[in-house]
Amino acid sequence: MIIVSGCPRSGTSLMMDCLRLALGEDRIMGSKFPKENRGKEKLPFETDAEFDLRKYFEERLESEKKDKRKEKTLDMNPNGFWECRYTTQGISWHLGIDCPSEKICKVVSQGLIHTDPKYVDKVIYMLRDPREVAKSQENLVRRLPFNEEDLEKQGLKIHSPLMFVNVTYQAIQWIKSNPQVPVIFVHYDSLLENPEEELRKVGEFLGEGDFSKHPVEKRLYRSKPEEGIENDLWAIAEEIYAKTLTKDYDGLISFYKDNVRKIKKDTMTYHCFRKGRKVVYNECIACKKDEVARNNFKKDATKRKISWISEPCVFECGIDVDHDPITIKQSIENNFWLTDLEKRVLAIQK
C-alpha cells in the first residue's frame, strides 16, 4: 500500500485528496468526513451488537451538538478529513484484514509506529512547522467540543508542541527501522506555495498519477505560527523538526532520548510520600514555589495523618529536571514544608 503519514494537522488529508484526484477515487481507503463523524465505521474485533450500541449512544447523546460541530469542523478543514480504521491505530494483521497493494491509506505518525512494514510499499510523509501544528491542533480542539470563550476565561492553554514531539519521534523510529521502505518528505508550506512542483515530485516518487489537477488552495493556510506562548518544549520541538528536515534520524532519536525526562515531565505521575498520593509535575512546581499551595498540601496531609515530617520530597530527590538532585537524607533533614517555628520546636525536642 501507499501510506500517507505525518503528524496530525500536517496536511495528511490534503495529500490524500491530491492522490484521490491523481490516482482515482477507488484507490483511496476510508472516506472523507468532518471530525464529528469519526467512529462511524465498525472497528476491528467490534461485534455487530457492540457497533450498534455505540452508534445508538452517539446518536442519542450527541444529536444536539452535531450540527454545530459539523459547521466548526468544516471551517477548520474545508476539504474534510480522509480517514479509515487504520489512520490512528496503524496497520497490522487481524482477522479479515483487507489491504490490497494498490490502495492508498492515511496512517498518522502515531499509527505508523504500529504498522507492519510488510503492508507498506511507499510512504509520503508530510512535514509542518511544530508551531503551526500546535496552533492548528489548538484551534481544532478548542472548537470541538469546547467553547473557545470559556477556555479563554479559564486561562486554559492547549497550545503545546508535546504531541508533535512524541509522534514525530515515533514515526522516525519506524522509518529508520525500515530502510527498505521508500519515503518522500513533503513540506506542507511548500505544497501550498508551489503545489505543481511539489506534486510533480510526488508523481515521480510514485511512478504514476496525473497531478495536473489538484485541490490545493492557499486559503488552507489558516494556522500560522503563534509567538509568545511559553512552553519549555518549543526548543526541543524545533530541534526535532530541524533533524527531520535533514533526515538526521540517528541524531533525532539520540536527542529525544537525551531529553526524554523534560519531554515527559508534564504527563508523568508519581507518588508523593509527603502528600500520600499520586501527583503530577506541575503540582510539585507549585508546592516548591507557591506558599499557599504548599500550605494546602500540608494541611491535607496532616488531616489524613501522614507523617510528612519524616518523608523526603521525591521531586527534589530526582524528579526535577531543572535542578541537580539532593539525597533522601538531605531532603528529610531540610524539609521545606516546615516553618521556622516548627524547625525550632523540633530542634528543642531533639
Polypeptide structure, described:
With 350 residues, the protein is an alpha/beta fold. The protein has two domains: 2-40 and 48-262, Rossmann fold (3-Layer(aba) Sandwich), CATH 3.40.50; 269-349, no CATH class. It is built from 16 helices and eight strands. The protein has helices spanning 12-23, 48-76, 109-112, 130-143, 148-154, 162-177, 188-193, 195-206, 234-245, 249-258, 260-264, 281-289, 291-303, 315-319, 328-333, 340-349; strands spanning 2-6, 31-33, 81-83, 104-106, 122-127, 183-187, 269-272, 277-280. The chain has a four-stranded parallel sheet, sandwiched between helices. The protein has a two-stranded antiparallel sheet with strand order 2-3. β7 (269-272) and β8 form a beta hairpin. α6 (162-177) runs parallel beside α9, α6 (162-177) crosses α10 (249-258) and α12 (281-289) crosses α13 (291-303). The radius of gyration is 25 Å and the shape is elongated. It starts with a strand and ends with a helix.
CATH architecture of the largest domain: 3-Layer(aba) Sandwich
- Alpha-carbon Rg, integer: 25 Å
Order of helices and strands: EHEHEEHEHHHEHHHHHEEHHHHH
Strand order of the largest sheet: 4-1-5-6
Main sheet properties:
4 strands, parallel
Number of domains: 2
Strand content: 5-15%
